[in-house]
Amino acid sequence: MEMDAFKGRNSSIGLRPQKVSGLQDVPRAPMAESEERWCHDIGREQAANKPLLKTVFQTPLENLEPVLREDIQKIWDSVPKPEAHKETPLSDFFNVEVVALSSYEEKEEQFKEQIASLRQRFMHSIAPGGLAGDRRGVIPASGFAFSADQIWRVIKENKDLDLPAHKVMVATVRCEEIANEKFAHFITNEDWRKLDEEVQAGPVSNFGKRLTTILGSCLSEYDGEATFFDEGVRSSKRQQLEEKLLQLVNPAFQDVLGHIRWGILEKFKASFDKALGIGEGFSSASQDWFKACMTQFDEECAGAIIEQANWDTSKVRDKLVRDIEAHISSVRTSKLSELTSLYESKVHEALSEPVEALLDGANDETWSTVKKLHRRETESAVSGLSSALAGFDMEEETRDRMVKSLQDYARGVIETKAKEEAVRVLMRMKERFGTIFSHDSDSMPRVWTGKEDLRAITKSARSASLKLLSVMAVIRLGDEPDNIEKTLTVALLDPTKNDTSKKSITTSDPLASSTWDEVPSSRTLITPVQCKSIWRQFKTETEYTEANRRGNNWLPPPWAILALIVLGFNEFMTLLRNPLYLGVMFVAFLLAKALWTQLDIPGEFRNGALPGLISISAKFVPTVMNLIKNLAAQGEDPPAANPENRRSSNNTSSSENPPDHKSSSKED
């Protein structure tokens, strides 16, 4: 491309308006005053800017060319260019040349010659001396068709130069208007609004089919109105409309999936719990109902899918799977906890009271019996638990851990009960001492005649109490032997053997220790030093019973009886002077006699004063209430009509309280 500037030199006459002959004779239409003044100014010196034009045209070319080139360079600098050509000079793309021509009016021949020369330069532009003679790689005319084809291909591929055809522009505007109109109409569509409201309220059946129909109708209307426009534009705008519609209805679709997921989850929970309630295995019930519910979920999701979209339901499905698995895990944990609690309660019930009874009657066979009981009940509980766990399809390690926990619990029940009994060992020892001391070998209450060998009775009672202490000293659930009983017998019951042993008298006390030989502290209930302290307290509290029985008299001494008579003489005389007092005293005597017989006071005091008082205080109120009830019942009965009725009543009365009469006669 060549840029040429043509400048006439001294050609001011050429710009001057030429005179037209007969111009004054032509009638003119009326014109405004300003227009008339402008017409009158034509040809005038100043009004036509003749001095300025003369100055311009008479200026030398050497002065004009730099100014023109500077202006062109400024234009080139302000033109936006690609990044690669920001610093490229103008000369790489254009040849700028300034040419001046003579005045046509003054130098016509010279003007024509210059024009002919300039014409030749254009016609032979690629020849040496031509306007484009300095270019390289010029394409000859034979390759013009191919070159033009390549240039056009570049233009078509350049998006900035790809101007749409008129019909494409019209189709773009009109199809977009139709699409916007159909989208707005869809938003206000009653069928869609009703369907959306139903989805917000809860589960909707045939959602996919109904929404497919509504969307299809909207798109069909678009197709009908845009059918005569350009196919490419029509399809593009239809796709955009479809995307907007799908984006609008997608939240409703997600809500439908949420309703389906929630409904399936609730169904699984109810069905799974019901299956477990009727005794179905945990593993089989969970697997069967999981498969059934997931199949139903897939079917309902298929019914919610619309034809216009390929929406993915895998995320909601995965969420449902996680929810079901979490519920299964929660139920499994709950059921396993229930099973554990169930069998622990069975073990506790089977061991607690029997072990307490065995330890209460401690003897040589106590711990062997406890071990047998422990083994039998533990094996029974473990067998039941293992059978119950078989339906859970759990790992062997987890099952073994639960079985081990139950076994440890069973052992813990025995150890806990043994520790509780060990705390009460002193009380148990005193009870055993009192029982053996006050009863004979046939477990009958002992009748003291004064001929009994109290030393032998006391020793027997203490030996039995010491046996209980030795049994309660440690836990013996294993097969490890110990010599605790022998140690306690030598150190406490028969200290003379300890003194005459081969050991020196200065040897340390075998009970002056906090541990037993060859017995770990975890099995120890009562340490040796604690046994010694308990035995000392036991002897102190039981010596009174022995001393009291040695005196063989529970009545106060004679001097105390004499003092009571002397000091109470005045009160005795007062009673004799007032018969009412005697009546009251007589009634009080009868009540006291009845209480004496019912409470068996002499028998209670055989074990000592303190135990007797405690026992009597515990039985006093119930005995008084029983006497009052009997008196009230006898007062309501009609009086006896003949001796037979009286005799029958006496027989009945005597039969109701045979132990009292027996006790009374024995006391007498």
TrEMBL record:
Give every GB1/RHD3-type G domain span: 59-135
- The biased composition feature labelled Low complexity covers 648-657
Biased amino acid composition, Basic and acidic residues: 658-668
User: One matching Pfam family, short form?
Assistant: Sey1_3HB
PROSITE patterns, per this entry? G_GB1_RHD3 (PS51715)
Q: In terms of domain of life, where is this protein from?
A: Eukaryota
Name its species: Arabidopsis thaliana
The family annotation for this protein states: Belongs to the TRAFAC class dynamin-like GTPase superfamily. GB1/RHD3 GTPase family.
UniProt entry keywords in alphabetical sequence: Endoplasmic reticulum, GTP-binding, Hydrolase, Membrane, Nucleotide-binding, Transmembrane, Transmembrane helix
Q: What is this protein called?
A: GB1/RHD3-type G domain-containing protein
Q: Where is this region: Disordered?
A: 1-32, 634-668
* Entry GO MF terms: GTP binding; hydrolase activity
